[in-house]
Amino acid sequence: VTLQLLDDGIYFEADELLQLVIFNPSGGAELGDPVLATLTIEDLPAPTTTTISTATTTSTTGTATLTSSTTTLPYCTAGATASFAHGALNLVAALTEELPSYGLETFACESLEPKLRGQVTLECTPGAVVVDSSCHFWCSGDMQTSIVESGVIINVSAPSDLADGQEVSLECSSLQAGYENTAVVKCDGGNLLVDSSCAPAACSGSALFSLAGAEGLISTSGLDHGSSESRECSAVNGNYSGTLQLLCLYGQLQMDSSG
């Protein structure tokens, strides 16, 4: 008995069992042994022909009735894929090994996208691979972004891993010397966002200056970055008259006595 198998075009179709039974001979034919034959039909990319030689009769002049039945043995092959979306990301997960029906394979979400954490579980169901995802966005502590404040580029990174939506406040002085106030760093969709009030620091307090070998302590109640105020030279060296300029640059007091 020769059977022509036609490819149905179904991708990753499971193996099937085909049972052939010869019975009810007529015209003087007699059945031989065996009368039942079983073969496995494997999924192939193109039509193929399979010949069964175990189902026979003892007479070439008689006739016999041929019946068949099929039994599905589903499985999913390595490389079978399933697609799913997470936020704006379109992700594709693939099996790394063959799975039996309703078998499971689990792996880390970050293997699909570095911005994700959690697990992806692929389940083999008859004819399809199904995804169960607990993926969520994450910002790792080694991520970095930058802001520009007063013409200065400031690099910003989270002090530790941040879950999506989590935020932390940082002192601007820890990000850039000579700056003050705070910056709020937030993880949003796997990206770092910065809400910054960083600015060049003002000056306050006292600083020790020298003039012609003499030293004097000059105090200020507060100077903004880039501003200045005049002081008597005698505040530093009693032997000098005239004025000097007290300058504030990035939180540091400086003296200009050139005038």
What are the secondary-structure elements, in order, as H or E? EEEEEEEEEEEEEEEEEEHEEEEEEEEE
Profile the largest sheet. Answer: 3 strands, antiparallel
Task: Return Rg in Å.
Answer: 41 Å
Overall residue-averaged pLDDT value? 83
Based on Cα principal axes, name the global outline: rod-shaped
Low-confidence stretches: 45-66, 68-73
Helix content: under 10%
C-alpha end-to-end distance: 114 Å
Beta-strand percentage range: over 45%
Please render the helix and strand layout as text.
Blueprint: E1 2-5, E2 15-26, E3 36-41, E4 48-51, E5 63-73, E6 75-76, E7 81-86, E8 89-94, E9 99-100, E10 104-108, E11 116-117, E12 119-125, E13 128-133, E14 136-139, E15 144-149, E16 152-157, E17 162-163, E18 167-171, H1 172-175, E19 179-180, E20 182-188, E21 191-196, E22 199-200, E23 203-211, E24 214-223, E25 228-232, E26 243-249, E27 252-256
Antiparallel strand pairs: 1-4, 2-3, 2-5, 6-9, 7-8, 10-12, 11-14, 12-13, 14-17, 15-16, 18-20, 19-22, 20-21, 23-24, 25-26, 26-27
Short description:
With about 260 residues, this protein is an all-beta fold.
Task: Kindly describe this structure.
The longest helix has 4 residues. The protein contains 1 helix and 27 strands. By secondary structure, it is an all-beta fold. The radius of gyration is 41 Å and the shape is rod-shaped. The strands form 11 sheets. A 3-stranded antiparallel beta sheet has the order 3-2-5, with no helix packed on it. Strand 12 and strand 13 form a beta hairpin.
